[in-house]
Amino acid sequence: xxxxxxxxxxxxxxxxxxxxxxxxxxxxxxxxxxxxxxxxxxxxxxxxxxxxxxxxxxxxxxxxxxxxxxxxxxxxxxxxxxxxxxxxxxxxxxxxxxxxxxxxxxxxxxxxxxxxxxxxxxxxxxxxxxxxxxxxxxxxxxxxxxxxxxxxxxxxxxxxxxxxxxxxxxxxxxx
Length: 175
Hints:
The chain is of the alpha+beta class. The chain has a single domain (25-174), classed as Alpha-D-Glucose-1,6-Bisphosphate, Chain A, domain 4, CATH 3.30.530. The chain contains four helices and seven strands, in the order αβαββββββαα.
């Protein structure tokens, strides 16, 4: 009897693992806002990591957070590293591509409490008298990420923070 119960449990766990393995590997989260300013006014606020403190939704979550920068601000290869409390963890961002007034692409590496690498991008597209700013994040889930995604919706977790950041960027640009 014990052997049959154990076989059923193993079969259920195996089926669940197979289901998790079939979940999508790729993910993409994005939010947009139209700002009454040209891309040239927005681009420097995103291309220079030192400017993020004014609008980033995570900048004020840990007043004791330690940050450091490397490289020439606003250039490919410049980095921003942070280490803070449980709300912000530890990570690094590296600018990987820049198209002046059009695109900022960043390699985003979460180091703690878990390791995960994503690509974050900001696009600036003319929209009437202003600019449509889109903040996106994409990457791939490993098996643990797929399991996590079954129970936590990344879009609902991260999307509202993108919305807050874009609203603050819009506010900062309007000043």
